[in-house]
């Protein structure tokens, strides 16, 4: 789908009348790398008319004498400039107008970029003007919207058995981490389709500081498991017993039971998150006391 592009004009000089920005004069598609096609729509002042005005002001014979540069900018950063209205970030429209005024150039940019769209492709902008002005404008734009500045990808080794726990029900846990840190976190799709080969690799992409925060949050969400063995029992403990359910609810843990026939015992697993270490440990001690009674002091916790 095409995102509408703002076509704005620079203030030519202090003595000249200010040319007002015109909405939706150019429509630019978010296309794949290597594709340079754009489409032009006509509403109000057209993109070609804007370039003609700029060429005349610069003393050039026509728009074909203008230098142009078309390049991608960081989608997430541009979304922030379009979305945030609290004064902490310069609004996109004001930013591009200022750059044009300072460099006497014309900039086409996606003013109606779909915020939070499924597409992760970085959009294009196009700058026209004299060669030195275009270069100066590009430097100013990229200083704020560079797609490569401080962007890294970190690979983590996280056991594939823990991926679903970290992702959370409906993906809520990992979505929260991505929103908090501004990073994209990818779990290998092959794990869902290939029962024989599983990958432990988790990728985190974003700016350096955000990636480090995301890494810490993923580690915090990694399951922490304590276990202990019960003495020989005639039957498997009931996981729906009131005292088990109460421990799970009180401490935010999951209690699992596994029989170990060769050892004539039952293994109790208490599963929680690393960032709630004290709760997982306390839940384990409560269960040891409840289930082992007088033998509690002899139980080894792993």
From TrEMBL:
One of its GO terms (cellular component) is cytoplasm. GO terms for molecular function: RNA binding. Gene3D superfamilies: 3.30.310.270. The keyword Magnesium does not apply. Residues 29-45 have a biased composition (Low complexity). GO terms for biological process: regulation of gene expression. Residues 150-223 form the K Homology domain. SUPFAM superfamilies: Eukaryotic type KH-domain (KH-domain type I). The keyword RNA-binding applies. Residues 1-45 are annotated as: Disordered. Keywords: Repeat, RNA-binding. InterPro entries: BICC1_KH, BICC1_KH-I_rpt1, BICC1_KH-I_rpt2, KH_dom, KH_dom_type_1, KH_dom_type_1_sf. This is K Homology domain-containing protein.
């Amino acid at each position: 789908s095409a995102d509408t592009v703002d076509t704005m004009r620079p203030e030519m000089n202090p003595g000249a009348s200010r040319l007002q920005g015109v909405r939706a004069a150019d429509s630019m598609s978010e296309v794949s790398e290597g594709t340079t096609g754009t489409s032009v729509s006509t509403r109000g002042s057209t993109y070609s008319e804007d370039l003609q005005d700029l060429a005349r002001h610069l003393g050039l014979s026509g728009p074909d004498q203008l230098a142009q540069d078309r390049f991608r900018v960081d989608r997430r950063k541009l979304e922030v400039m379009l979305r945030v209205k609290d004064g902490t970030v310069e609004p996109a429209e004001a930013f591009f107008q200022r750059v044009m005024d300072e460099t006497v150039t014309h900039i086409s940019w996606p003013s109606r970029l779909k915020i939070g769209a499924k597409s992760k492709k970085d959009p294009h902008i196009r700058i026209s003007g004299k060669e030195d002005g275009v270069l100066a404008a590009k430097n100013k734009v990229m200083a704020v919207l560079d797609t490569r500045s401080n962007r890294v990808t970190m690979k983590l080794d996280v056991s594939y058995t823990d991926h679903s726990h970290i992702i959370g029900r409906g993906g809520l846990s990992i979505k929260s981490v991505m929103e908090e840190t501004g990073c994209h976190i990818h779990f290998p799709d092959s794990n869902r389709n290939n029962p024989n080969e599983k990958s432990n690799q988790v990728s985190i992409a974003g700016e350096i500081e955000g990636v480090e925060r995301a890494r810490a949050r993923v580690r915090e969400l990694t399951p922490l498991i304590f276990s202990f063995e019960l003495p020989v029992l005639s039957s498997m403990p009931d996981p729906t017993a009131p005292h088990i359910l109460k421990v799970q609810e009180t401490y935010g843990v999951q209690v699992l039971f596994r029989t170990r026939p060769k050892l004539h015992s039952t293994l109790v697993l208490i599963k929680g998150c690393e960032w709630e270490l004290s709760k997982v440990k306390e839940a384990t001690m409560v269960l040891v006391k409840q289930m082992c009674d007088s033998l509690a002091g002899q139980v080894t916790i792993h």
